[in-house]
Design a protein that fits this description.
431 residues; elongated; Rossmann fold; binds nicotinamide-adenine-dinucleotide; six-stranded parallel β-sheet; 2 domains; eight-stranded mixed β-sheet; 15 helices; alpha/beta; 40% helix
Length: 431
């Protein structure tokens, strides 16, 4: 084993984390749990203060765990200079799309600039932010070397995608980690470092392979969700229940993995990641037809969902204009409070644009965020009988679906929430 790999596998070393959001904070805590000292850096000073007060806003990290880590191995700071003490730096900053759905690498570039200033001999740098194949090689390596450090002699650089799914049961340390270095030695050193934190590490031959593997995983999901969404539209046209069709197909013990339709795709991964690949493909003059088709179907699904709701309002001989609609669930997926890039919100905004009066029930996202979107917040104890229709857009487990249907109005279930919970009511219409 290379001496540096031995160091990261066996010695006490300090991990530096750049960006402490949904990905960085759980990674910092996982590193603490495995006995490493951790310096977490974030540019948002107010956020750092909040974290240092022991208040976690990330569902997967409890206040109690944050506080106990802060009392022992974890230091959180807005002072980038503290990262000089780190032996390995993990970059976990956002990588959104720009206005024209092109990769916006500005956060990665600014994080890499931070690393450039603190890089020193015997340092491993691993990029975790999702990005297109070639980013680590083209952007991270030159900045880290900065004309003064040598690859494999002084520093090692790798890409290791984050695969965590917020709100799901699998913790960072339990999800197999892909690790691809920009050199063979970088792969070996980075894999050794990750083995200290993550139960299962899968080295690959280059950073670009790891970059593309992450994008393939989420493109696979986007394409299959697109297929499920298109099938839901077809089943409706044929007068069939798509949920029953999928459940029937899923009894096949091989060759079929169920994906389910919904009001559209949301979050910061599934709608975005295929676009990183499509953007890189265009540079290589390669057309990504599956990505484009899935994008077309998935982007149209919120409008399709809103149309189905409007048609149900029409069937009650009501105009959409001025009709009271209750949206249930506005986060992009169940059981989390994150409402960024949420298709559920797109459906409600479309109904609002047609004149419907929107209220929202979402105890997970909470009143403050609901009102920030310009909607009236309603609680489970409120009177639901005045709504012409209830639209289930995100099916949090804490919601009492039977009580909603029993309160009277028609329910349009865009998530299969009733079927999945075995609740049968005559006034529930599924997507
Ligand atoms: N959230 C997910 O479900 C998920 C899953 C897999 C992969 N990812 C990827 O992980 C990366 C991070 O996503 P996230 O959800 O944790 O983002 P986030 O928005 O929750 O957190 C990012 C943090 O980085 C900080 N930051 C921004 N620029 C910085 C800089 N230059 N230096 C230091 N801190 C900086 C921000 O203040 C913020 O606190 C993205 O590339 C994302 O695509 C996210």
């Amino acid at each position: 084993m290379h001496e540096a790999a031995g160091f990261y596998e066996n010695e006490a070393w300090t991990a530096g984390i750049v960006g402490l959001g949904y990905i960085g904070l759980p990674l910092a805590l996982a590193a603490c749990r495995s006995g490493l000292d951790v310096i977490g850096f974030d540019i948002d000073e107010a956020y750092i203060e909040r974290l240092n007060d022991g208040e976690s806003v990330i569902e997967d990290v409890s206040d109690a765990e944050l506080r106990s880590a802060l009392a022992s191995r974890l230091e959180l700071t807005a002072d980038a200079g503290r990262l000089r003490e780190a032996d390995a730096i993990f970059i976990c900053v956002p990588s959104p799309l720009g206005r024209n759905r092109e990769p916006d690498l500005s956060y990665i570039r600014s994080a890499v600039e931070v690393v450039r200033r603190v890089a020193h001999p015997r340092m491993l740098v691993s990029l975790e932010s999702t990005t297109y194949p070639g980013t680590t090689e083209e952007i991270v390596v030159p900045a880290v070397l900065d004309g003064r450090l040598r690859l494999d002699e002084d520093v090692w650089v790798a890409f290791s995608p984050e695969r965590v799914s917020p709100g799901d049961q699998l913790a960072t340390a339990d999800i197999p980690k892909l690790v691809g270095g920009v050199t063979e030695q970088s792969t070996a050193v980075a894999a050794a470092a990750y083995r200290r934190i993550i139960a299962s590490v899968h080295p690959v031959s280059s950073a670009a392979v790891a970059e593309m593997a992450k994008l393939l995983e989420n493109t696979y999901r986007a394409v299959n969700i697109g297929l499920a969404n298109e099938m839901s539209q077809l089943a409706h046209a044929l007068g069939l229940d798509i949920w029953e069709v999928i459940d029937a197909a899923a009894t096949k013990p091989f060759g079929f993995q169920p994906f389910y339709p919904g009001p559209g795709v949301g979050g910061h991964c599934i709608p975005l990641d295929p676009q990183f690949l499509a953007w890189r493909a265009r540079e290589a003059k390669f057309a990504t037809r599956f990505i484009d088709l899935a994008e077309e179907v998935n982007l149209s699904q919120p409008i399709y969902t809103a149309r189905r709701v409007m048609s149900l309002i029409n069937q009650q001989r009501l105009p959409v204009y001025g009709t009271e609609v209750l949206g249930v669930g506005i986060s992009y997926k169940a059981n989390i409070a994150d409402d960024r890039e949420s298709a559920s919100l797109e459906v409600l905004h479309e109904l609002e644009a047609q004149g419907a009066v929107i209220s929202v029930l979402d105890p997970v996202v909470g009143e403050e965020r609901i009102e920030a979107h310009g909607f009236t917040a309603v609680s489970m104890d409120g009177d639901l009988s005045g709504f012409a229709i209830v639209v289930v857009l995100t099916d949090h487990d804490v919601i009492d679906y039977a009580a909603i249907a029993d309160a009277g109005p028609i329910v349009f279930d865009a998530r299969g929430a009733y079927r999945r919970r075995g609740i049968a009511r005559g006034n529930v219409v599924a997507l």
